[in-house]
Amino acid sequence: MVVIQKEKSKWYLCNPKKPKPLIKLHDKYFKPFLSEAQILAAVKSVAQKVAADYKDETPVFVGVLNGSFMFVADFLKEYQHPCEVSFIKLSSYQGLTSTGIVETLLDPPDNLEGKSVIILEDIIDSGRTLKELIHLFNNTNVKEYKIASLFYKSEVYNGEYAIDYIGIDIPDKFIVGYGLDYDELGRNLREVYQLNEKHMINLVLFGKPGAGKGTQAEFLKDQYNLKHISTGDVFRYNIKNGTELGNLAKSYMDKGDLVPDEVTIKMLQDEVEKHTDASGFIFDGFPRTVAQAKALDEFLKTKEMRIDATLALDADDEVLIQRLLERGKVSGRTDDQDESKIRNRFEEYNQKTAPLQAYYETQGKYHSVNGIGAIEDITRRLGKVIEEL
Ligand code: AMP
Prior knowledge:
Layout: E1 2-3, E2 23-25, E3 28-34, H1 36-54, E4 60-65, H2 69-78, E5 84-90, E6 104-106, E7 116-124, H3 128-138, E8 144-152, E9 165-169, E10 175-176, E11 192-195, E12 201-206, H4 213-223, E13 227-230, H5 231-240, H6 244-255, H7 261-274, E14 280-284, H8 290-302, E15 309-314, H9 317-331, H10 339-353, H11 356-362, E16 366-370, H12 375-387
Parallel strand pairs: 1-9, 4-5, 4-7, 7-8, 8-9, 12-14, 12-15, 13-14, 15-16
Antiparallel strand pairs: 2-3, 3-11, 5-6, 10-11
The chain binds adenosine monophosphate.
C-alpha cells in the first residue's frame, strides 16, 4: 500500500517542471494531488495482490458505480487471469431501510451463487457505504466476498470492517478525478485533484520600472487564481477615458513623477472593493511609498486581509533602461520613450519606493528574486517563493 504523506501539500506534484494550474469545478477550485502514474501504480499493485489470492479460480469483480468505473477498467487491464465483471449501484443517501435490506439502484447479478466476489470501490472514507455493501453481500449466497478500495482515508475510517485490499492511503481531503466527482463534474480527469483550501494570498510585486512586474503578474494571477491590480494600468485606463482621476494623474505621469499618495491610495482601495470575491490579489506598482504601504496594511486589516509576501524582481538599471526603451517603441507609452523620463522614474524609485524594502523586511515579508532571464524561469522562481509561504 502506498501512503501519501500528510505533509504540506505540493502544488507541483504531478509534474515538477511544468506546474499545472488549479482547476475549477462548479464553484470550487482543486489543485493537483495524485498523478496518473501514481494512480496506475496503485491500481496495478491491488490487481497483483488480488491475483496472488485468486488466480486459481474465476472471481467476479463487482464495481460500485459511479465512482469506480475508471478503477475497474484499469484494474481489469492489469488482472491477467480468468474473471467475470459486474456492477452495482447503491442508493446514495438512503442507507438501510427499516427492514434491514439495502436499497440498490442496480442489483448484484443473480448468478453469484458459490462464487468468490471482490467488490471494487473507488474510495472508502467514513465507512458508511461499506456498511451497506457488507449488509448487501451478507444476504447473498456467494462463496466469499472481499473488499478492494483504490483510495482509503485511514484518518476517518471507523474501522468497523476489515478492508482486504487497499491502493493508496490518503489524507482526509475532498478529492475529484479518476472517476470521483464533485457534484457530477471531474469524473473524466486522469489525475486526482484535491480541494484547494489554501487561504487567500495577497502579494506585492516590487521592483523598478521595467523589472517585469506586469509580465509576471499575468502568469501568477492564472496560476494562483488572483486578481491583478496594476495602479499604472488603472491610471492609464482613466487617462484614456478622460476621467477626472485620469486628468489629475496625467501631469505627474507625463513627467515620470509619482501621483500623490492620497489619490493613489483611494484609487487602490476602490479597486479592491470592486473585487471582494477574489481569492487574493497581486498588487503591481503599489505601494510605491511608505505612506502607501502603511495605508495598505491598515486598509487590508479592516477587511481581515494582509500582505503575505513582497516579491522583489531584481535587475540592473542599464538592463531596465534598455527594456523600457524597447517597450516604448511598441506600447506607445510616452514615459517609456524618453530616457530622461525613465531616469526620473528611477530617481523617484530610489528616493520614495526603495525604503519599502526595509519596511517589508522588518515584517519578514521581503523576498528578493533574480529578475534576469527567461520569463518562464522567473515565473518559476516566484512560484517557488509562493509555494513556501
Ligand atoms: P507603472 O505602469 O507601474 O510603471 O506606472 C506608471 C506611472 O503611474 C508611474 O510612473 C506613476 O506616475 C504612476 N503610478 C503608478 N502607480 C503609482 C503609485 N503606487 N503611486 C504613485 N504613482 C503611481
